[in-house]
Write a structure and sequence with these properties.
The complex is a heterodimer of chains A (about 375) and B (about 400). Chain A is mainly β and about 375 residues long. In chain A, about 5% of the residues lie in helices and about 45% in strands. Chain A has a 5-stranded mixed beta sheet with strand order 6-7-9-10-14, with no helix packed on it. With about 400 residues, chain B is mostly beta strands. In chain B, strands 1-2-3-6-7-8-9-10-11-12-13-14-15-17-19-20 form a 16-stranded antiparallel barrel. A two-stranded antiparallel sheet of chain B has the order 4-5.
């Protein structure tokens, strides 16, 4: 099915933006609201599922919002704070995953990544914290997992296998057995890690279990890797050491394509690129195109809409910071710009969520005025 | 126009606005430096950059009551107008700038000082915005025009601070409570709600019993809460400094020398930075040769452009630590025009950048590990080029111009 040209859509959205401008939210017509977050370090990541948004607000802890679940009557345009956990024992809440266990039907555990200080790309710190969110209004700290000398970053889960995959910076990719009750300090035997790029060439940002059955890991130093999933992830040939000019950042895999961001500055190159990869029959990634954005310093989060039609990424540290949406419908190998919502302070992360049949984007605006920006992007999908 | 205004303001013969010797007393001074600087390597590509700037444009007021018990110390710094984007200075870092010296705040100092004699001990109370009693003298009042890389390891300034100083014989003990937040822009004031979240103490020994002359030894310690995150969520710093400062004569020529060591530890030792610096100057007639050597470690932060780092901070990560070893030599010629002191000068620096730890590759980023700076300039002032700042326990008449 052909979709309207990006320029037409952009023009329409821009006109619509003029009619719907809201002083509390970006004026692009998609924005619904902006929820202010205390100006500690702002939001790092947001996990949305079943109409509940878990906002990881660094020193301010994990904030749980009803954005359409109904538990507090919240909606995407009027989120309601359900609770907030600011644990005295740890801070720097970075990312989260709400575990829906299909084996037990439990929705008990929220895994939270703590991002501690890292002294250069080579060492890091920060633990995985397990919160019991059986009562969303009263989350409690129940367990911790630590890898000495390394810190955790983004998660993915194989929920039926009850395995939490955690990018673990210099420790690579960690597979953590999260079956059964979780409490106290989780036994180190529950976790096995692999350094895709080897020692000194591994600083893994993110990991994703793709629908093709392979596990993909994006490593800041050594690029996009293909791994065999399981309790002991194994590196597959054909991937890795494929982004030498930039530090890589986030990844998203959808169908036959993977999309990866870039970060900071490596040598003379800034993190202003989104890499587009075709996944070959055996799952190996092959670079097919790049989106390079002048005025962007880091592309820090990448995601594809559930139907595969829209690529979204967040950009920061430059004059062209903000949220970008690209059309993948015509040719996923060569995305076409749909819309850019400029946000001067930059946007650190952005994630899609489907609520009551509509598609929303939740984006983290950076300090000095950090906020959770919520967009209704359903119209971007409309043919 | 603002730049021109600031330059003109500094060129006006301000000296002798003061009523020296009379009490109540006041002294208003001004100073500015016109500097043509070529420096390299330019970040992210290498090569040299050349700029003509007015730097260190300041007006300084020091006024005292009739009994000399109460003093007002105020320094207005016009960096925010003349170098809003900083001054070329490879290696320099801090307050969101890198490889450029950041502009200081307009209200550089605004301190009320009370001197209270108590037998053989003299107590000084000072409060306002100004220098924390930690480390060595502000680089603005030292012989080289180029700022040392170690500025943020060796001094703490522009803070909301309350100081108690006790002088007895050759000994001075200073203690301070202050707000850890460092400024983020020239027009910014300290957050009052941060006042008292940090402290510092300095012990100074002056064996000659003559303030400002002879040998001066100091050791100081500070605990600074979240200096780089204004709202207070950043990493804490533990700082140490020790130095020996000498002023006197080498033969018939007045001389000055300083040797300092400092260490800053962040997040209970996650990041540690060291510095050693030695500098000296001579006055031979009108001739003012000087030199400095320093080796200083600095954090390599994620950049937002060539000369800026990401601010406000988003996390507690750095790319690595580099060491900058820089030798600076300079020569100035002291001239006078009416009450104005003029000092044309030439100054050059050569240095090396080394990776200490982490993933930052200086050779890849700068196109090499050698660094160099050359400056031709003219300092215009109503007071001596070298002047100590932030020594609030010194009486007005003792304020040391070495």
């Amino acid at each position: 099915m052909r979709r309207p040209c990006a320029t037409c859509l952009l023009t329409a959205l821009t006109l619509f933006a003029g009619a719907c401008e809201d002083s509390n939210a970006p004026g692009n017509g998609l924005a619904l609201t902006a929820i202010a977050i205390p100006p500690t370090y702002g939001i790092h990541d947001t996990y949305v599922r079943d109409g509940i948004a878990f906002v990881c607000a660094w020193n301010d802890g994990v904030r749980i919002y009803d954005v359409g679940n109904g538990v507090r009557g919240g909606t995407p345009s009027l989120p309601v704070l359900v609770s907030r956990l600011k644990s005295p024992g740890w801070g720097r809440a970075h990312n989260a995953w709400w575990f829906h266990n299909p084996n037990t039907s439990e929705r008990r555990y929220l895994f939270v990544g703590e991002e501690g200080p890292s002294s250069g790309i080579g060492s890091s710190s920060g633990d995985i914290h397990v919160l019991d969110v059986s009562d969303l209004g009263n989350p409690t700290d129940v367990a911790t997992f630590r890898v000495p000398g390394a810190g955790t970053h983004n998660f993915w889960m194989d929920e039926s296998a009850q395995i939490l995959y955690a990018a673990y910076y210099n420790a690579g990719v960690l597979a953590l057995d999260v079956s059964g009750p979780l409490s106290g300090t989780l036994d180190a035997a529950r976790g096995v890690s692999v350094q895709p790029g080897g020692a000194g060439n591994t600083f893994t940002w993110g990991v994703q279990l793709a629908t093709n059955g392979w596990l993909y890991a994006i490593d800041m130093l050594s690029g996009l890797w293909q791994l065999a999933p399981g309790a002991s992830p194994a590196v597959q040939p054909g991937g890795g050491n494929n982004v030498p000019e930039r530090y890589s950042s986030d990844l998203w895999v959808h169908g036959e394509y993977a999309f990866t961001g870039t970060w900071g500055h490596r040598s003379t190159q800034y993190g202003n690129a989104v890499k587009i990869w075709h996944l070959e029959a055996g799952g190996a990634p092959v670079l097919v195109d790049s989106i390079v954005l002048p005025g962007v310093g880091t592309v820090s989060d990448v995601e594809v809409s559930p139907d595969g039609n829209v690529l979204m990424f967040s950009a920061e540290n430059g004059s062209a910071s903000g949220v970008y949406w690209y059309d993948l419908n015509v040719d996923p190998a060569h995305p076409v710009l749909l819309l850019h919502d400029p946000v001067d302070a930059g946007v650190h992360t952005a994630t899609f969520a489907t609520i009551d049949g509509r598609l929303y984007a939740f984006a983290a605006r950076n300090p000095s005025y950090p906020a959770l920006l919520i967009y209704d992007v359903t119209q971007l999908l409309t043919p | 126009m603002r730049l021109l205004g600031a330059a003109c303001a500094a060129l006006v013969p301000w000296a002798a606005v003061a009523a020296q010797g009379a009490r109540p007393s006041a002294r208003l001074d001004g100073s500015a430096v016109a500097a043509l600087t070529a420096a390299g390597p330019v970040p992210a590509g290498g090569g040299m950059a050349t700029e003509l700037r007015i730097v260190h444009p300041v007006l300084m007021l020091r006024a005292g009551t009739a009994a000399g018990r109460l003093e007002l110390v105020a320094t207005v710094d016009f960096d925010g107008w003349t170098i809003p984007n900083g001054e070329l200075a490879p290696g320099m870092w801090g307050e969101g700038f890198v490889d450029r010296r950041h502009p200081h705040t307009f209200a550089h100092e605004l301190m009320l000082v009370a001197h209270v004699p108590a037998g053989g001990t003299r107590m000084t109370l000072a409060a306002g915005r100004g220098f924390v009693p930690f480390g060595t003298d502000d680089p603005m009042g030292r012989p080289p025009v180029r700022y040392p890389v170690n500025h943020h390891l060796s001094q703490i300034l522009e803070r909301a601070v309350a100081i108690v100083a006790l002088d007895r014989g050759s000994l001075r003990v200073e203690g301070a409570l202050f707000g850890g937040d460092e400024p983020q822009s020239p027009g910014q004031w300290p957050r009052l709600d941060r006042f008292g979240d940090s402290w510092a103490a300095r012990l100074t020994v002056r064996p000659t019993l003559r303030p400002g002359a002879g040998l001066e030894l100091q050791a100081s310690h500070a605990r600074v809460h979240s200096p780089e995150h204004r709202e207070g969520s950043g990493l804490d710093q533990v700082k140490w400094s020790a130095s020996a400062r000498w002023t006197g004569r080498l033969g018939r020529a007045p001389g000055y020398a300083l040797a300092e060591w400092a260490r800053t530890s962040e997040d209970r030792g996650t990041f540690v930075y060291h510095t050693i610096l030695v500098e000296g100057a001579l006055e031979s007639g009108r001739h003012r040769p000087y030199a400095r050597i320093e080796t200083t470690e600095r954090p390599e932060e994620q950049r937002a452009g060539r000369y800026r780092t990401v601010r406000p901070l988003l996390d507690d990560a750095i790319l690595g630590v580099t060491r900058w070893t820089i030798v600076t030599v300079g020569y100035g010629l002291d001239l006078a025009w009416g009450r104005l002191r003029l000092r044309p000068f030439a100054e050059g620096s050569l240095g090396r950048i080394a990776n200490v730890r982490g993933g930052f590759d200086p050779a890849g980023y700068y196109g090499g590990t050698a660094t160099g700076t050359a400056t031709l300039g003219l300092r215009v002032a109503t007071m001596p080029a070298e002047h100590r700042m932030g020594r609030y326990a010194d009486h007005l008449e003792q304020h040391d111009h070495h």
